Amino acid sequence: MKVTMQGIAYLIVVFVTTCLTSLAINLVWNQNLIIALAFALFFGSIEILFLSSYSVKILKGGWIPLVLSAVFMVVMYVWHYGSRKKYLFDMHNKISMRSILALGPSLGIVRVPGMGLIYTELATGVPASFTHFLTNLPAFYQVVVFVCVKTVPVPCVPHEERYLIGRIGPKSYRLYRCIVRNGYKDVYSHANDFENDLVMSIAEFIQLEAEGCSGHAEGSADGRMAVVRTSGKFGTRLLMSESAGFGEGSNISLPGTLTVTSSKSPTLKGLQSMYERESPEVNTGRRIRFELQNVTYKDSRVKEELMELVEAKRTGSTYVIGHSHVKAKWNSSFIKKFAINLYSFLRKNCRSPVVGLNIPRISLIKVGMNYHV
């Protein structure tokens, strides 16, 4: 039976390779179609003869690899089908930036100190989970970053080409969009690495934009993206230093820098320090501090925006991610309901996006969403 399983798998691979080679002869090498067909008929007929001889032994145990292949094919197709339906639902129900920006700089809500990172699969527009969150709690952070993580078909993406940063709306809105391009072998070793890189990348984008290197001066509904961390001027306005044993409210400054203090109230600082003492896994002893250099800027708004970015990071970052429940519509066919239910079962038993994206649970907010596809 083992020989039969290996023979069937090998011959199927060889037959598929012959078919793809015939296509390459015609489409890639630009040879005559008759030559491609002759190649496929000659070698394909020989492989079909060998495959038919092995097919006689299917009833004697060779059906096992065929059943396993069918099961894996169904699982992969259901996963692709459910993921595509979920993405199309997000695309159809996303909120246009024009309606969001029409609310004004405050977005019609209370802006509180801090930085909010909105995880979404959409590269444009506002996800429905964000508006759902604001509907139930009309308050959000002073700096908002829509983060979209994309996996590209390369092993590793160079660090200087990983972040695409753009602005949403005018500068006073403090809305940014970040597209993170990761290779399938890229991982983050520490939870704070992404936050630090994101803050430095946004600071670089603000400087490039002020010099007229990216986008428009006052932004747009969903502005152009710029690859950052490629400029030689990176980090000249914002310094990052590592310290240990100091709390968030410690007054530490570097020579020639401008200290930005946290806007958290003493009560919130006390509650956070108490929580960190009770949770040893949170207090790792590795703290990154950002300092804004006390230099003269051509545009005073650049300095103000950088100070607000540093203040928001020092106050704290919060991750907002959608916790979706995918369900089939009531009038869907039996096959579609079976596929969606199987997709939901697979999602519940797979690795959570929080784990995959290395999001710290202390700063996580999940927004429940029902997807009726």
Automatic annotation (TrEMBL):
Key words, A-Z: Ion transport, Membrane, Potassium, Potassium transport, Transmembrane, Transmembrane helix, Transport
MF GO annotations: potassium ion transmembrane transporter activity
One Pfam family named in its UniProt record: K_trans
Membrane topology, from the record: Multi-pass membrane protein
Coiled-coil region: none
InterPro entries the UniProt entry points to: K+_transporter, K_trans_C, K_trans_N
Domain K+ potassium transporter C-terminal residue range list: 113-372
The UniProt record lists the keyword Transmembrane helix: yes
Top-level taxon of origin: Eukaryota
Compartments, record wording: Cell membrane
GO CC, one annotated term: plasma membrane
Bilayer-crossing regions: 6-29, 36-56, 62-79
Residue stretches making up the K+ potassium transporter integral membrane domain: 7-101
Record flagged with keyword Metal-binding: no
Family designation: Belongs to the HAK/KUP transporter (TC 2.A.72.3) family.
Protein name (database record): Potassium transporter 3
Source organism (scientific name): Sphenostylis stenocarpa
